[in-house]
Amino acid sequence: MYFVSDRAKALVSLATSVHKVSSVADCFHFKYCINKLLCLSLASKLRCSDSNMKEALETRNNELINDCSDKYAHIQFHTDLYVESMSNISQVLHPFRKGNQNNTIEFAEKNIHKELSNIKQVIDNCEITDKYKLFTKAEKQVSDLVSVIGLWHQIKEETLSAMTVPQLTKKWFENYLLPSTYWELAIQKTKHKPSRVRLKKELKKCYEIDQNQYLATEISNIESKRLKNDAINLCRKFQRASSQVEGRNGYLSLINHNQRGFDDNRLKVLTIVHNFDTRGIDGKTPAERLFREKIKFDPLFNYILENFGDLPRPRKRKPID
Asked: Up-side HSE of residue 52: CA atoms within 13 Å toward CB?
């Protein structure tokens, strides 16, 4: 068990002191520190350089055009390097690599530091001022960021040791079913097209594995479905970001900003919405996952429309004399 959060001291203390579990750095906030430093700065420099290039072309001064062209190419190169490095950081932070090979903390940490050195090069060469030490803040989080890989593999080993299946079937589950299921779920969650292409390549490597080396006999359909569900549940325990609760955090922040607390009715409504109306990637509600059966009920939105009374009339304003 582990607790994923940004590096807020209260949340770290909640994990380590109260719940006695490991605190893992959040990938979203880790990358946000770097994006906050570089994204707008590089875009501004690129836009300014492009404007200077257009002005130079109007003067038809070859020396000035070449100078502006070199500056634009310089900024464009480092912008592309920054984008590529940020993408590579996301690709490293997975429990598997090269299809079904187990990723390690050491490998992930080494590669993330390599990408951070490229980003440091962008900061220095483009003369970007890190006023709030955002790069240093991100750099300090690397060890906590990659720790999720080791913690997840511990959970995997505990799950495997508790499984009551033949040894060959267990190896098939670990070396084929689990990594292929993970990449399938990762593809479903990813909207960025280049990232999807890279994930599909990893999944293809899994599909190319000869399953006969692990399976002496054919597994029944019931057993296969059960093992597939076990793989899905285990893969979902790999959480590298807290983005699933950011919407909830935004709502809580709004309530706090408006200086309104939670009365009993509001808590009941939020509980019902969460348990019976929110759905995961598998299309199931939290209640259905808890009870492991299909729960039939009328859609909540339709129920609200059918039971919603007339709105109160607006108050009459006093006539202005």
From this structure: 17
